[in-house]
C-alpha cells in the first residue's frame, strides 16, 4: 500500500492507482471531462489537473493518469489550479457553447466571461466515443484523424463504416452534444443559470477547503 | 488505376523489403507516396489487410503526417521552405508570388496537373534562404521577381 | 572482414595510415545539403574530369565530404595538405584550381574568403575567422572524411572507443564515466545523460532499446543533419557503447522525413559497420549482440518529443503520452528505452577515448562540453558552429558570425527554436548554456541561433512561431490545441491593427495556462516566444495596439510603401511588375504608389535597383 496526503488528509492506496481514483474513493471531488471510470484514462482535457509535491519539487499533473507515489502531497483546488481550469473551460465553451455539460462545469467553477470569439462546434475531441467504441463495444469503427486544428473523429476515408453496428454508444457518452444547454441566450454567452459566488476560503487559505465536507456556504446549485 | 492486379503487386513488392509489422507502416507509406505522389484509398486498404493493422489506424497515420497526401498531386511538386531563416528573408512574399503566378493556393494543384504548391518545414539549407524546392532541385536566394524564370527552368 | 579484437582494429588502422601519404595532395569537396543545393556535385565531377584529363588520378586524391559548416560560402572546397580554403567554387573554376593550386602550389585569390568588416583574406582553413573561434571536438572530422567510407573513420581512430569500452570496461564503469563527464542531453532537454543510462540499466526487463533522435524539427537548426551526413559512424559508435552499458540489444535511429541524404549516409554506415563486425552478433568477441534499424518520420515536428517519437516508431500517430512513468522504465512497446539526440550519442566515443575529466574541463560548472549550433538569420556568416558551452552570445554573433548583414542594428537573437524565446541586446553578454538561457526566458533547445535585426517585428516573430506550432500541435490536449489557436488569433489581430488594450493581459493569462497545463513539451514551451517578447519588447506590442504602428515595417496592415523622390529614376520597373497596378508615373519622372491599391506584396521593392521604395508606419 502507498501512503500519500490529499488536501491535508492522509490516505492509502494500492500501487498503480491514480490520484483521481484515490480521490474519488475518499469522496474528494476533482472535475473531469474526458474521463470515464470504465474506459482507459486519456488525459486530454486537463481539467483534472492537480498540484503534486513529491519532496523535490511541485508540479502540475493530470490526476487521471498520475500513479500514486509514497509520500506525495496532493492539492486539488489551489488558486493556480482553479485559474487554469477556468481558462480551459473558457476555451472549450468558446468552441462549443451549446453543451450543457460544459456550461454546468463552467458555472461550478465560477467562470464569468468568455473572451474569445465563439464558434459553433459539436465536438471537443475528448475521445470518449473513440474509446467506448474500441474498448467496450469491441469495434474500433471510429478514430482520431488529422492533426492539430484539423483533428477530427471520423471513420476511415470518412465513408460509412463497414464495422459500425449502430449501437449508439458514442452518442450516449458524448458530453458535448447529448445534452444541449437551453439557458444560453443568445448563443455564445455563458449560461450561468447555476451561478456561484467565489468561495471565501479561497481568499483566506489559498485553496478551497471543502473538498471533504461541503459547508455549502458559498455553493448553491439550482436543481433543474 | 485503382485496384487492378498489377498495381497491387507493386505494393506487395514494396512490402517485401520490410518486415510485416506495425513499425514498418510509415516506411511503407513513404514508398507508396513516392510511387504515386499520393496515397490511393485502395492501397491503404491493401496495406491494412496485409499488415493486419486496423483500417482506422492506417488511415489515422496517413492523415497525421505532412509527408502523406490523400489526394492526387501535380507532376512538379513546388515546396517553399517556411523555416525561420527563410521567413526572415522573405519566404512569404515568394510564396504569394507563386500563388499568384500559378493561380492556386497552399496544398492545391494547377488544373493542368502540372504543379502542386505547398509550404514545408525547414529544409536545413538556411544559408540559401529563401529556398524553393521543385522536385529534387533546390533554388536558392529566390525572390518574387525571380519566380517566372524559376518556373521556366522546370 | 570482421574485426574481432582491439589488436585487429589497431592493425587495420595502422595499415590504412601507412597507405595514406599525409603529403599527398587531396581535394575535399563538401557534399552536404547546403553545398549540394548550390551544385557541389557538379564541382566534384569537374574535379574528377580535370584530374583525369591531366592523368593525375594516382597523384591527386579527390574526396567528397559532409558539411564543413560554413554554408554561407558554399560550395566549399579545401585542398590538403596545406588546407587552402576556397569558397563559392563553381565548376568553371576547377581547371584553374587544378593547374594553379594543385600543380603549382599557387593560390587562386578570387576564391579566398574575405572578411566583410576588415577586408582581410584568409588563405588557409584555420585562418578563416568563422572557424578560428570555434573548438570542434565533435565536428572536427566533418569536412575531413568521406562519410560513405568506413575506412576513413577507422583511419582517424574510429571504433577505438568501442573496443576500449567493450573489452576493458564494465557497464558500470562506462556509465560512471559518462556521468562524471557531465554530458547532458543535446536535443534541448539537457537531462544528465549518465543518470538516464543508469536509470535505464536499473529498469526491470529483459528487452531494452536505445534510440537515436535525429528528428531535428526546429526551423533554422541543421546541426543534427550535418552530423548525420558528415560523420554517421560517430553516432553509431556512441549508440553501440550505450547499448552495451544499458544491456539493450536493439537500437533505432529516427530520422526526419525531410533528410533523405542523412538517411542514405546512415544506412550505408550501418551496412558497413555490420560488415566489419561492429554491429551484429558477438561484437568484439564479447557475446554482446546489437543491431540498429532506421525509422523515418512522416513530417511532424511533435515527433521530436520522445513519447511521440516512440509512438511513431510503433506505427501510430505521433501523439505524446504522459511521462509520469519515464520512458527509461516504459518506452518503446512498453519496454525500458533510452532515447538520446544524435549529437549526444556522437559525444560518447570522445568521452570514452579522452576520459570524463577532459570533457568536464570544457564548458561551465553545470553545462559541460561543447554546444553545436546553426547560426542563421541576419548575420554575415551563417553556418554550423561548435563552441564551448558558456561562450557569450555576443562573441558568437560578432566574432564568429561577423556581425549583422549590411551593418544594420542588432535587435534580438532567438534560441531554442519554436520552444525558445527571444533575447534582447542588453542580454547579449549571457553565456550559452542550459541554465542561463532558461532563466532569461528562452532555452538551448536543438541548437538554432537565429539573429534578427532592426527590420524584424517582434510581434510578427511571435505570430510566426505560434502559427508554426498551431500546425504542429498533435491536437490531443485542450490547452495546446485551443490555447495556441486563440493566442494566434489575438496576436494576428494585433498585427492587423485590430488589437485592444485588454488583449495583452488576456495573452499573458492564456500563455501561462498553456505553459502550465499542456500535456507535453510542445504545449508547455509553445508560449515561450510570446512570453519572452512581451517581457523584452513590450513597447512594440504597445505601439501595435495603441498607435497601430509597426516600427520594423513588417505588419502589412500597418505600413505604407512610398517612393523617394530623390532616388527614383522613373525607370518603370516597379510599374510594370505591380500586380495591383498601383504604381503610376511617366518615364524618367518620380513614380507614385497608390496606397489604397497597394497590398505591400514586395515585388516593387525587390525589383527596384535604386532602393527608392521605402516603408513608413503609423501617423507621422
Biggest sheet record of chain C: 5 strands, mixed
**DSSP helix fraction of chain B:** 40-55%
Number of domains of chain B: 2
| Main beta-sheet annotation of chain B | 4 strands, mixed
Q: What structural class results from the helix and strand content of chain C? A: alpha/beta
| Top CATH class of the largest domain in chain C | Alpha Beta
Describe the structure.
The complex is a heterotrimer of chains A (224), B (154) and C (620). By secondary structure, chain A is of the alpha+beta class. Chain A contains six helices and seven strands, in the order ββαβββαααββαα. In chain A, the strands form two sheets. Chain A has a five-stranded mixed sheet with strand order 2-1-5-3-4, covered by helices on one side. In chain A, strands 6-7 form a two-stranded antiparallel sheet. In chain A, helix 2 (79-95) packs antiparallel against helix 3 (100-109). The N and C termini of chain A lie far apart (42 Å). The model of chain A is unreliable at 212-224 (pLDDT under 50). With 154 residues, chain B is α+β, with helices and mostly antiparallel strands. Chain B has two domains: 5-64, Arc Repressor Mutant, subunit A, CATH 1.10.10; 76-152, Glutaredoxin, CATH 3.40.30. Helix content of chain B is 44%, strand content 12%. Chain B has a four-stranded mixed sheet, with helices on one face. In chain B, strand 3 and strand 4 form a beta hairpin. Chain C is of the alpha/beta class. Chain C folds into five domains: 19-131, Glutaredoxin (3-Layer(aba) Sandwich), CATH 3.40.30; 150-360, NADH-ubiquinone oxidoreductase 51kDa subunit (Rossmann fold); 370-453, Ubiquitin-like (UB roll); 458-546, NADH-ubiquinone oxidoreductase 51kDa subunit, iron-sulphur binding domain (de novo design (two linked rop proteins)); 556-617, Alpha-Beta Plaits, CATH 3.30.70.20. Chain C has 25 helices and 19 strands. The termini of chain C are far apart. The mean pLDDT of chain C is 93. At the B-C interface, helix 2, helix 4, helix 5 and helix 6 of B face helix 2, strand 11, strand 15 and helix 25 of C.
